[in-house]
Fold this protein.
Amino acid sequence: MVYFCLFLLINMEPTYFYFFVLPLGVLIVILVSMVLYLAGKEESLYDKELKKLRIMLRSGTIDKETFERMRNRLKEEIIFAEELEGLSTLLHDKVINQDTYVQLRELLEKAFRQRVKGIIAQI
């Protein structure tokens, strides 16, 4: 196989380069640039929700204290969702069993409720 590829490269006519290699190179450059553009454009859920909260604050729908409370609650919800996703991954990979998953999820929910009560009590 390698010898066949080398044979093609050695005996390649200039027209083959212009008709095959050059268009493939251009296609690869276009695809890579599209992937990088879309990866940079992607916003996280936290950023989207925070943008909505800022719009509500500027329009006067909510006051500054409510904005602070909702922003802090949003942070806690995102942390909770990420940790719960990590637990689900551990269960899926069979690192932990179902009983351990249920116990850890309950502890996580309890800690989340306590953190949210602490945020509400602060303001």
